[in-house]
């Protein structure tokens, strides 16, 4: 059965993020339009962030050596980074000859622009990534080679920001992945969202003015000059798909490859092609 879409649907968090984790529930307001989380994101990150970069990291200068973060603090030596058949091709940190699965690894060549960065446990940041603050990177998340985080990024646990993927003023809830060649600006990804290679979330209209959402002949002004896409839990996009500014897609939906999605609100379980 298709759910009825009306303007009140914009305030239904269960259309997008049912059972949201306590880690994020203060960001979202019940009975408010779902994009208001983006209006609050800047302040929210500054309120909860606990920066923990190593003090000797110089802003804007690529790291000259690997760094490892353990519960007791940062290490510049005394560890080994493995990547072979035994690790199934993944980077793995060993300390005193034993795997350290809770260790976070920041590879030589990564760049941070300032110290307003929080890194969780088991995080891997590969060489060539550039990260601007304030940004929070949750446990066991991967920031891959060439990724660009432009600040005001709230990245949950077990997420992926992939090769040459750019993220700006956006939220990734736990398990969301943008593995290859994506642009995510002023957007929210629900839990376990997966973006196909080349997915782009356009966030700025060609003409002046705020982004509006059209529903059944009504036009809702978001009050935002920039608004990308909001994808509910478990949504997926196909390779090279593009969304127009102000695209809101309910949970468990699919966006087919190689299409441009018109702005608006799409109900849960939609197949957009």
Task: Give a description of the structure.
The chain contains 2 helices and 32 strands. The protein is 6% helix and 33% strand. The protein is elongated and about 65 Å long. Strand 4 (92-95) and strand 5 (98-99) form a beta hairpin. It folds into 2 domains: 7-49 and 134-272, UDP N-Acetylglucosamine Acyltransferase, domain 1, CATH 2.160.10.10; 56-114, no CATH class. By secondary structure, the protein is mainly β. It has helices spanning 13-16, 36-48; strands spanning 67-70, 73-75, 79-82, 92-95, 98-99, 104-106, 111-112, 117-119, 124-125, 130-131, 135-137, 142-143, 148-149, 153-155, 160-163, 166-168, 170-172, 177-180, 183-185, 188-189, 194-195, 200-201, 212-215, 218-221, 229-231, 236-237, 242-243, 247-249, 254-255, 260-261, 264-266, 271-272. The strands form 5 sheets. It has an 11-stranded mixed sheet with strand order 2-1-6-9-12-15-18-21-26-29-32, with no helix packed on it.
Quick summary:
The chain is mainly β. The chain is 6% helix and 33% strand.
- The strands making up the biggest β-sheet line up spatially as 2-1-6-9-12-15-18-21-26-29-32
Report the average pLDDT across residues: 94
What's the number of domains?
Answer: 2
The portion of residues forming beta strands comes to 25-35%
User: How would a textbook summarize the main sheet?
Assistant: 11 strands, mixed
Shape-level CATH architecture of the largest domain: 3 Solenoid
Gross geometry: elongated
Q: Would you tell me which CATH topology of the largest domain applies?
A: UDP N-Acetylglucosamine Acyltransferase, domain 1
| Helix-strand category | mainly beta
Rg measurement, Å: 19 Å
CATH superfamily of the largest domain: Hexapeptide repeat proteins
Proportion in helices = under 10%
Q: Could you give the count of β-strands?
A: 32
Helix count, DSSP H or I runs of 4 or more residues: 2
Beginning-to-end CA distance, first to last residue: 19 Å
Uncertain residue segments: none
CATH class of the largest domain: Mainly Beta
What oligomeric state is this? single chain
